[in-house]
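Tokens for chain A. Residues wanted.
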């Protein structure tokens, strides 16, 4: 896996996992994101360990993040993309997308997917479109998995 570290002014984007502040990522994902409220720190750590991660740093402060889950041959899922509000409006999300889409290990993939509620315009600039044939896609989706009201799994329902 090719490690990238690119600096522009006071900002750096890196795939070097040793520079990730997973406590800061967890804080954002669990308290500020709409897609993973209450996500446990251990889940964030496990997800990062098994993904290609992109840290956006201001000095040493974690101000943005994204991760890609991929087989590096055919398919990639882009998730957990954010830039802290205090650092928005400086082109960081565009730079992050350029870096992700240009990563050498993510070239030649047949399909990328992501889910977003409000950033369609950003992703469209990088070739993303609504699903061409959504009727072929299926999902198992449990949006409350990290809450106290989550539907019990078979294992947790067994006395």
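Reply:
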């Amino acid at each position: 896996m090719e490690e990238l570290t690119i600096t522009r002014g006071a900002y750096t984007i890196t795939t070097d996992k040793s520079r990730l502040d997973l406590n800061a990522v967890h804080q954002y994902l669990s308290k500020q994101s709409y897609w993973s409220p209450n996500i446990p720190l251990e889940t964030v750590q496990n997800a990062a360990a098994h993904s290609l991660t992109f840290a956006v740093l201001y000095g040493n402060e974690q101000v943005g993040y994204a991760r890609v889950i991929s087989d590096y041959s055919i398919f990639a899922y882009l998730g957990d993309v954010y830039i802290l509000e205090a650092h928005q409006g400086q082109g960081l999300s565009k730079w992050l997308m350029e870096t992700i889409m240009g990563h050498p290990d993510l070239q030649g993939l047949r399909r990328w997917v992501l889910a977003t509620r409000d950033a369609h315009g950003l992703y469209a600039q990088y070739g993303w479109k609504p699903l061409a044939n959504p009727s072929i896609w299926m999902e198992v989706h449990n949006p409350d998995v990290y809450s106290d009201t989550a539907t019990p799994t078979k294992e947790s329902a067994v006395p």
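Confidence is low (pLDDT under 50) at residues 153-159. Residues 10 and 58 are 6 Å apart (CA to CA).
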